[in-house]
Amino acid sequence: MKKTIIIVVIIIIAFFGYRYFKGSPDTAVPVDQGSTIDDTTSQASTTQNSVDNSPISIIGKSVQGRDITAYNYGTGAKNLLFVGGIHGGYSWNTASVAYELMKYLETNPSIVPSNIKVTVIPVLNPDGLNSAVGTTSSNFMKSDVSKSEAKVIASRFNANNVDLNRNFDCDWKESGKWQNKTVSGGTNPFSEPETQAIKSYIEKNKPVAVVIWYSSAGGVYASNCHSGVLPETKTIGMAYADASGYKYDESFDFYATTGDMANWLAKVNTPGISILLTNHTDIEWNKNKAGVEALLEYYSK
Question: What are phi and psi of 280, to 5 degrees?
């Protein structure tokens, strides 16, 4: 009899002890009590909902698996986006000017108005930059750029040999033009992981405006995809040009371009301007700093 009672007591203790440590299946265990399932769910939800508000977020991967990274400064409702390095190592100075902007924002956080979040994607084509410079980080120097002209030119394209600035959905063609050369625009608009990444970012975050650095021509160019220049595009284009000293132009007419990123922005009603640095080696920081500050002032109102 005693044995039976002892066994029953042990079973009861074991049963309620198990429920205590495991948690009742009918009652959710609070995250701060250490439930593995709930912690994982909470973490995934946080990543999904606030990834673009964190200081650093990965928005996608390149063909070769390199991160395409967005750096955020400020937490305001107006997202102002700057993009560099779309042409990899061929226009490595466009990544350099973006990194210089990041350094400026990091050391002068008060420059970002409270109603603005500045996002900088310094290298949209990390495979191209890496092939010519040997890295995608901010610490590369002019002396790191390959001395092979052929290698530098080839690094304009991604690892699929696609010109990313011919892969967007405005006048897209499979074979595009770059100066007097024929280049690949991909198999269809947004066929490349890099352009898919920036498309998804823009669709999700809906920036008030996008500034893209290219080289080289020395000017500010408005975006347009057959519906005319958006009034906001003209306003910010002229503001950037007036502050920086670059000339402002309503169209890029050196040669016909297809699948251009800035023009796609116009198609989706997002104000966008292209800043073409004067050459392939200088970042012209004082000019661009003035242009950036003009946009921050404009969107602070």
Answer: -100, 10
The sheet with strand 209-215 has its strands ordered as: 56-61, 67-73, 116-121, 78-83, 209-215, 272-277, 219-222, 248-249
Give the domains, in start order, of the chain with CATH numbers: 52-299 (3.40.630.10)
The β-bridge partners of 274 are 212, 221
Average pLDDT rounded to a whole number, residues 270-285: 97
Amino acid making up residue 184 = S
Torsion sign (Cα): 45, 51, 54, 55: positive
Whole-prediction pTM: 0.83
As a three-state string, the secondary structure of the chain is: CHHHHHHHHHHHHHHHHHHHHHCCCCCCCCHHHCCHHHHHHHHHHHHHHHHHHCCEEEEEECCCCCEEEEEEECCCCEEEEEECCCCHHHHHHHHHHHHHHHHHHHHCHHHCCCCEEEEEECCCCHHHHHHHHCCCCCCCCHHHCCCCHHHHHHCCCCCCCECHHHCCCCCCCCEEEECCEEEECCCCCCCCHHHHHHHHHHHHHCCCEEEEEEECCCEEEECCCCCCCCHHHHHHHHHHHHHHCCCEECCCCCCCCCCCHHHHHHHCCCCEEEEEECCCCCCCHHHHHHHHHHHHHHHCC
Higher per-residue pLDDT: 36 or 155? 155
Distance between CA atoms of 186 and 161, rounded to whole angstroms? Answer: 8
Residues in the chain, overall count: 301
Residue 163 clears pLDDT 50, i.e. is over it = yes
